[in-house]
Structure formats: C-alpha cells, structure tokens
Amino acid sequence: MAAEIESVPQGTVTSPEGFFAGATSAGINKKAAGKLDLAILFSEAPCVAAALFTTNRIKAAPLVLSQQRLKQGGAGAVVVNSGCANACTGERGLAHAAEMAKLTAEGIGILPDDVLVASTGVIGVPLPMKRVRSSLEQIILSRDGGHELAQAIMTTDTLAKETAVKVRVGDSEFTIGGVAKGSGMIHPDLATLLCFLTTDAAVEKGFLKKALKKAVDVSFNMISIDGDTSPNDMVLLMANGLAGGVPDDAFQQALERVCTYLAKSIARDGEGASKLIEVTVAGAPNLAEARSAARTVVSSSLVKAAIHGADPNWGRIMAAVGRSGVEVVESKVDLYIGDIPVVKAGRPQPFNKRGIVQLLRGREVAISLNLNLGSGKATAWGCDLSEEYVAINSRYMT
Amino acid sequence: MAAEIESVPQGTVTSPEGFFAGATSAGINKKAAGKLDLAILFSEAPCVAAALFTTNRIKAAPLVLSQQRLKQGGAGAVVVNSGCANACTGERGLAHAAEMAKLTAEGIGILPDDVLVASTGVIGVPLPMKRVRSSLEQIILSRDGGHELAQAIMTTDTLAKETAVKVRVGDSEFTIGGVAKGSGMIHPDLATLLCFLTTDAAVEKGFLKKALKKAVDVSFNMISIDGDTSPNDMVLLMANGLAGGVPDDAFQQALERVCTYLAKSIARDGEGASKLIEVTVAGAPNLAEARSAARTVVSSSLVKAAIHGADPNWGRIMAAVGRSGVEVVESKVDLYIGDIPVVKAGRPQPFNKRGIVQLLRGREVAISLNLNLGSGKATAWGCDLSEEYVAINSRYMT
To answer: For residue A387, what pLDDT is reported?
Structure first.
C-alpha cells in the first residue's frame, strides 16, 4: 500500500492534531533582548514518547531529568529554553530543571513527572530562575504556537527549522511535525541540536523507539558542523494517537523525510556557513564503512575550507577518505564533484577548472565517491568552514 | 649514569658528525618564485635507519618507494621537495619518485636503493620533472646545509623548524639533530609533516625503531592542527654511528627532547595560528585514555576558536573531554586555565574573568584537567583556530 506524503504548508511541530505550543521572551540571554527564549510544547492527549540523547559523558541537568522521566513513562509536555545550557551546573542545575518542569505542569494542570525539560546555550552558567518563574506564567499555548517555539529554541541559528508532512495511506491519514535547532557543536552521534517531533499517529512504544533510532541514523547522525557534540543534545518524538493506527512502513518513511529535512536545514545553517555540502560514498565494503567515510569527508576542515573558497583542491577529499579508517584502495577510487569526474580508478582526470569552480560556488555542493569495493552506500551533510565561523566562536561569551 | 643534554647553538639536521645537506630553488611551486624547494640530506657513513609513515590509506608515491627501500636496508641519503606532494599521481608518480632517487644517487655516487624520497605540497599534480632534473645537479652539499634543507621543506610554514642537542654521558658524546615541517593537515597518527632526524650515535636497528616509535608517541602523535592527516607524512631517523655506542636511556631521552621541540614548533606555527595551546590531562584511568582526552580537547574547533578570541568559554573544554570517549565522571573533574581553577569536582568556581582573559591572550595557553579517576597522564599540543586558517585553506590552489 503506497503512502502519499505531502508537505503541510507552513508546517510545524503543532501541525499534528492535539499539539499546542507557545513562547515568551524571558531575557535568559541578556544579549538578545526581546528574543523568544522560553517555550512550552503540550499535547492535550497523553503521549507515547521516545528520545535519543547526547553521547557526551558530560550531560546537562535538563537532559538527566528528561532521561529519567522518559524511562518511567510518557511525556505530556516539554519546557525548553535557549540562552543557557544549564550544563556543568551541579545539584543546583538539577533543582532548576525540576522546578521548570513543576511550574510548567502546574500551569497546564498535568503531573510534573509528565513534563520533560530541554535547554541550549552557554555551558556553566546557572539559569536565571527568577526570570524563568515569572515568564513561564506568560506563555499562551495555541494550536499554531509551533512557529514561536521554533524561534524560541534558536541560538546562533539564522533561520527557524520546522516542517510537517501529512500522510495518506489506505483509509488512514496522519501528520508528523518537527522543529529543530543546530548551528555549532554539530557532529554525528547527535550534536548541539534540539529536535522535537510530534505525530497524531497511534504508535506502539517499542516501534516508536526503533523508528526514531533508524530515522536519526540517516539524518541527524549524518550531519557535521564542527566535530563537537554538546551535553544538551536531544531528539524527542511524541505520539498522541489522535489520528489512530497507521502502517509501520508509511510512518517510518514519513519520519525519515521530516528528520532528513530538519538535519539538512541544520547543516545548511551551520555557524558561518554559506553552503550545504552533500557527500555520498558508494561502493564501500559495507554500510558502516560508507557512513564513516562520508562523515569523515564532510567533517574535514581542509575540505570545508577549500569548498568555502571554491578551490578545486580535490586531493583533500582523497586524503580525508584515506584517513577515515575505512578500507580504501587508491587505484579503485572514483571521485566526482557534482557530475564532473575528477578521479577515475585512482587517476586524476583532466577537467575544466572553470566548470568546477562554478559548481563549488553554488549554494549546494555535491561530492560523490565510489570506492568500488562493495555495496555500502551512505550520504552525509555538512557546511563550508568560513572566517565567520571563527569570528562567531571566538567571541561567543564575551 | 646521568646524561648531560644541551642545545647546540643554531643546531640543525647536519649538526651530528658526517651529515651533509644542500638545497636549491627548482621552481616546483610556481607561486613561490625563488623559494628553496628541493633538497638533499646525505651521510658520508652508511646509516641504520627507522621511519614512521602516514596511516592514511592514500599514500604518496615517494612514501611508497621509501617504505619499500627501508624494509630492504638502510638509507644513505634523502631527496625531498616541497610545492608538490606527488600523491594521487599513479604509476607516473612512482616513476618520478624513483627517478629523483636515481639522479640523487648518481650525483653523490651511492646506490639508488640507498636513497629515500619525500615530498610535500599540493595533491594530485605531477612533479615538473624537467625542472627537478636540471635542479638536482645544482645542489651543493655542505656540513651546515641543514638550514637550507629546513627552508626547502617549508610550505605554508612561516618559520623553519630545526634543532640539535649534544649529549654527554660517561665517556661518550653524541649529537641528535632534526628538521621538520608542518602547518596544515596536522593530526595525531602523524600529520602533514615531514621530519628528518639524524644522529652520529651507533644504534642497533631494533632499538632505533622502538626508540623512534616511543619518541613520536609523546611528540608528533600528540599534536593537532586541524584533524586532517596527509598521504605524505613521514618521520625518518638516520644513525651513522660515527660517535660510537651510547647508553639506550640517554639516547631515548635526547631523542624525545628533539622530537618534542619540533612537534611543539609545528603546533605553534599551525596555519593561521597565533598561539600554542598545551593541554594536559591527568587522573585518567590509564595512559591511552589520558592521551585520547588531551588530543580531543586540543583538536576541538570550538575550544580553539574560543582561545583565539581569548573567550573564557570553559564549558567547551568540558564538552570536548566529555565526547572524547574516555571515562569521565562530571562530579570529579577539575579544570584549570593556566594556574586558575575554573572547575573543581565538577563545580564551576568563581574566577576573575579579567585574569583568565589575560592568560588567554598570551602566546602560550596551558589547560589542565584532572579526571581524578586513575594515574594516566598525557600532554597534547595544538594551536588556536583563526580567520586566517580559513583564508589560507580556502585559496590554497587558486
């Protein structure tokens, strides 16, 4: 049974039935006066939920709390702030996260244990709880509040990242929505990313977990901005069941579409980035090696800087794949920039330099490698490395 | 028996007895007209030799040739060029490397099999052999030619990297000299680095190999500029025995001193770098984890950019050690910037922001972490990430 998947115009995390959101400007980040920085996402029907968290050994307080709560049950709401990561903040940080959840629960009228917490921003600074307390009361939840939430979770992001798809398959119809933030500290195994996904499909918890893991593996786990990961990374999927049961494969397909869209939006909007880089590795001995090779190339500072300057220095791509730890036989490698063959069977091909420079100047640059050793294939996304990235990150706190 | 180790004034790779070098400007890199770019290093007495090569699966032609020759025997001379890596150049590249060795051997009057070859520069471009042939004849070897060789192997390096130490222990006296080049594509497991080490000590081949590996592990394998490694990396140690036998421990100690000096010089002179960063991790469960943690912190783009801007964003250091894959218990971690405690037992400490900014503005920034879990300790070196790094690497070829 084929599923029809279409984008929802102005789709967001509150596009699925029964989801509400709202945000306010709490002044958590004093340097971004007036910016929305505190938000709530709420489902009027109880949710089954699944989440993936950072692999970083340093875990932010809100993440520790959310991880515990998700083990015990579902999730009815999420409260999230930007401007302060509430990480490396010790016992006080945990108390702050718990208080945020409690105040949110009281405002909505649900149990504190059903509220998850997420934060993003500077590490090592305590949350200004006085402001958080007085601001939480001011948040007004609405059916199209997803757009406000998408704004509220932005830090150095230049664009809000949100989308939704509507799926029709047989007699059933359901929606999946999502918002995300990214920008810096983005690398496979999650990243400084927050992503909230919602659906009105009725999905069993075990399947929801597997579906999320699978979707994240081909999307958020295939993007890299700078090789760093953060203590706050979290991808959460809430399913409230209001649209009834749906076929597993249609759900998986739609979820991967939403996640890939958001992941690419994050890569494209990396700190200081001027373009999206897409690296596809085919012919690897297996899928794991294809993934690893694609991720290594898209993460290479030298490759990223060369593409930033539209410099056809393809040797750096060869060098990056060579150090990826993946099996590579130089005399078998094919390399394309866009559609232009640059290396065939390990031999440099004569190419029109102007043509390549033109391609590299585009807003999207595609690099493909065929290792010609097996059938493993994977795609990774990243962005160029610009002077602006350094400028942003050399005065983030000061 | 304690060894007295002292620096040789203006020490270089030809400081040990019996070593000669010379260089010329062959015009291999057309953009650096007049720059020395082709050099020969030669020992008048036959050498025992040991080397470490890149772990990159893509290996440059000169490296393939040198690796084969070293397996079969020793090394009497090295011919080296900058401006062209002779990598990804297929059969033709191998023929070019072999011809360079043959011409060098003929000029000196030794066997071609005793000549090793090294190259550094742009990948994927064939060597301009006509220029190489006519220029090799012009090289004049001399006892203080090491300085010319140090100049000739530079690419984006801003300073020549060379040193020598004289060691007195009991009745014996010997010298170890070395030159290196670095700059970009520098990461543990060697890097875009060439390093030639020489000694007049008489050392048995088996010990020479082990001593080199051990010295490289605490020096060149502990530096990172940008996370990339190259197809051309090579560290070569030649021992001609003219000074007679020496105690193993004195040799090891002196060799590590030379290698650490050169490695730190490379880190300090990373592309676009304005300062040296030294990261020491103590209290790791074991040595391997200490090494891994120190290398991860010194390689983090976010840490490097923050230090560039003298931004006291220490949370990024915590986040980097947290993602290093090493065992970390947040509540046990101590973090110092210079001598100033920033985190104690996982808790942020109040600190004088101006004091830290002052420290971060220095030419050398020391970061120390104690994980308080075991006795593993290691130090890694790197440099800050500047707008200039991006500028250099976005127009390397164009």
So the answer is: 80
